[in-house]
């Protein structure tokens, strides 16, 4: 069985992201991992995709899948890409590990017409219960202990929406998941993962300034 066939079924959150991608469009996947999402998009929606990944092993996995990947640290920014070079840029389950959160979101808005970002929801109710018991939470979406976690900027759904408003990002759609199941009722408490699609307001340019 080939690696391509093994990866035919993707996670529900990635499947939702794929639904937001226009067939034949240009997609940039930041922190693309082993290339699962871009491979799926190339096969199912005929996109022209580029991934950015720092891990040697994951870059090799992308190459084996036929995914165009650039080995780069996202903390260095996206200066290698032009303004509005892509139709969609994706940052899946990586935002919480970025040191400069505002900068990467601004750069996403600069290089693309729309952005998609997903992150673990720190507002998930068992997290609060764990803290009340005196322990930092360890769950499926956040499986690390406090001393070895790559997650440095945890947030809730409301936290992200406030940041998006501060940066002038217009939220177009939201999907919330509990493991592989999509939830909507009391999502701020019940979801483990949030996924957002956003764009710049129509009266702003890619640098964040208002157009006359």
Ends apart, CA distance between termini: 57 Å
CATH superfamily: Vaccinia Virus protein VP39
Helix content: 25-40%
> Sheet with the most strands?
8 strands, mixed
Mean pLDDT: 86
Give the strand order, joined by hyphens, for the main sheet: 3-2-1-4-5-8-6-7
General form: globular
Total beta strand runs: 8
CATH class membership? Alpha Beta
Number of continuous helical runs:
8
Give the low-pLDDT segments: 1-6, 208-212
The CATH architecture can be named as 3-Layer(aba) Sandwich
Kindly report the CATH topology: Rossmann fold
Rg of Cα set: 17 Å
State the secondary-structure class: alpha/beta
Brief descriptors of the model:
212 residues; alpha/beta; Rossmann fold; 8-stranded mixed β-sheet; 8 helices; disordered C terminus
Would you kindly provide a written description of the structure presented here, covering whatever features stand out?
30% of the residues lie in helices and 23% in strands. With 212 residues, the chain is α/β, with parallel strands linked by helices. The chain has one domain: Rossmann fold, CATH 3.40.50.150. It has an 8-stranded mixed beta sheet, sandwiched between helices. The longest helix is centred in the middle third of the chain and has 11 residues, at 101-111. 36% of the residues are buried.
Task: Give a concise summary.
With 212 residues, the protein is of the alpha/beta class.
